[in-house]
Amino acid sequence: MKKHMLIAICFMVLGCTSLEKNDADNQNQGIQIAETKYAETIGKYIGFLNDKNIEVVLSLVTEDIEVNNSNGNQTKGVDELEKNLNEWLVPGNFKWRGVWGIPFAFYGEGDADPLVSVVGVFDLKSTNEDEVNIRNLMVSYIFEGDKIDRIYAHTREFNPTEKELVMKDITEGNF
Known about the structure:
Order of helices and strands: HEEHHEEHEEEEH
Structural class: alpha+beta
Number of strands: 8
Shape: globular
Oligomer: single chain
CATH architecture: Roll
Low-confidence stretches: 1-26
Number of helices: 5
Strand content: 35-45%
CATH class: Alpha Beta
Number of domains: 1
Mean pLDDT: 86
């Protein structure tokens, strides 16, 4: 599975349009790998979710943050995000870990600033008194400036081999 993901990532990167100079207006166009600061921001975001540090999580997002997930739930605005985090994150037992992520910068014709997105895959573990649940999330984080402005998350269940590997990590204390 990891080999297939790596191959897919390579095709994505190789398939990106190259950065070109437009002679007419001397603007960059295309897709390129963005600065690592964006991926680092996502790492901090996930770490602060794990620590249940809602105040710092909120400092990493815009006032107009929008969160969309695969079950159709949508959160709009920092106030609603704070309310939701207090309702499910604080009382829950969740842990995220990053699997991979790539920051992309998209330059359109005439754009001085790129649209920056970090696409990543994360494992999510949730536990209660008698059960451990694990899921895999593919998430796209879209930035406005240095803050997260949009989050699109797709959740999927692990196949049996993946589940066995992740459960082994849990048993060994690695997740």
